[in-house]
Structure formats: structure tokens, C-alpha cells
Amino acid sequence: MPRAHAMMCPMNPTPHYPTQILILCSLTLLLAGAAGCSDDDNPPKPDARVTDAAADAGADTGPTPDTGPLPDTGPPSSFCGVLKDVAGAPLASADVIVCNDTECHTDTSGSTGTFCVEVNVPTDYMFHATEQKLGSKHYSDVTFPLVLTAAEAAAGTKKDLGTVVVPELGAAVTLDEKIAKTLDLGGGIKLVVPANVAVKPPLASTIEVAAAAVAVADIHPQLLASGTGAPVAALASVPLELTFTSPIAFELPAPAGLTDGTALTIFRSNEKTGKLESHGEATVSGSTIKEVGGKGIAALGWLLFYKK
After folding, report:
1. Is 21 helix (H, G, I), strand (E, B) or coil?
2. Which pTM does this prediction carry?
3. pLDDT in tens, 246-289
4. Which domains does the chain have, with CATH numbers?
């Protein structure tokens, strides 16, 4: 696009004044000189009110300097990968969102499960493969933290996230906070919600709760990177925003190899940062993982169980 340049205009020629006025001006200057005054030594100060008024009226201040074209920000960077279910089949038409503190970028997975979300600001990001129903199946939200460095942003780096496994949830169960209920979520997963334990945010009426046990091998490395070592069990549960006013009891099948009485610490993935945070305590009781001393689950989401 051609640049726009300011145009300079010539000044008006000096007008011709009557002879009488010129004579009067000459006498005035002679009288001022006799009084010891000099216009050169004491130049008149501009009236600030006139100057400000001229600026407010949009007075011409001369040509605008040409600053040239805007700097090139370079090619966008991107986070790319493949969405698959636990059987290894690609997930098509699934929504993927990558957010920082001020903005979100989205993509929808293709027929082979591939996605690529473009970003351009070097900062911390949060990855979401959002909870959604595809056909007759209900899939969990998958979240984990990401980082784009300044060097990566300047180079337009394509960051490969590899395979992101999205667990399929069991059948949803209705929760009514006014009624004490054991939610049997299938696959040996149970949540015990007493009538005196309210939920946050308060429910307008009822809400659908669903969950699935997750094999440790199916947890994305970016989520594990914010913890310490590998967990021995994991649970994905929705909705992520559901929080209880006090921890609730639960049951979860214990993976093979865990001995009775093994003490566990529960970590939960923060839905805003994706980082793992200490959440509660559990123990292996026979073939089941249970809470310890009222230190069970205080919120749904991704829950990881580590040996103490």
C-alpha cells in the first residue's frame, strides 16, 4: 500500500499597507527606543490562552513525520497434537482451547484427530480438550499447563504435544444437593454426598455428574510435569466447577499391584492453571481406594493418587 505523505502549503504574500499607517508605526518605534525599550531584548510572550485555543481548534502544527511500516511480528507459533480415545481411535470434531490470562485460541480436531492452535504471545497457557458429547459418547475435559517462551514466539515455533488421550465418561448421574445420595458412577466409582454438604456454585435445581478411572499411561506428560513422579491411580470427573463445602467420601477401584493399607496423597489439577495441588488423603482398602478421616474429595476434576 503506498504511504500517505503530508503536503506543505506556501505562505500568503505580505499585504500592501497605506502610507499613513506606516508613518504612525515608525513614530511608535522611535518613542519606544527613546524610553530604553527593545523588542529584541524583551520579546513578547505568547498568550497561553490563545495558544491553547488554537490547539483545541485543530491548528496546523506542520507535517506528520513518516514513521514507516509497523514492525513485523513474525509468524504465529502453535500447539499441535492428536486427540484419541483410550482405545487409540482418533477423536474428530472435538473442540480444543488454549488460553492465557487475557485471551483464548481455539481449533476443532480433524477426521484423524489432529489439531493445531495458533498463539503469538510468549507466556503461560492452559490447554483444554473440552468436555463434550460426540455422538452417543460423553468425553471428559482434559487440562494441563503449557508455556511458550520468548525465543519460541520469535521463531514461530510449532510445539508438538503428541497424543492427548481423552477418557470416555460413564453414564451421568443426577445430583440434588438437598438429598443425601451415593452416586454410583459405574466402573466401581462411587461418591457419597450427604444432605448437609452443599455444593458451590449453588445448584439451580440438579446437575449431572460423571466420572471415569484413567490409566496412568493415558495421562498427558504435561500434567505429570507439574507433580512429583508418577501417580498410581487417576480419576477424571465432571463438571469441573463443582466444589463441595466439605470433603466427601468416595470409592475407586485400586489398580493391580497396590497392597492393602498403602497410604496415598490426592492431588487435583487446578482448572485455571492446570497445575497439580495437594487435595486430600486416601488409603488402599482391599481392592478399593477410599478417603481417610474426612479428607476425601472436595471438588471434581482430574484427581491423581500418589504413594506417600
Report:
1. helix
2. 0.73
3. 899 999 999 999 999 999 999 999 888 888 999 999 999 999 99
4. 77-165 (2.60.40.1120), 173-307 (2.60.220.30)
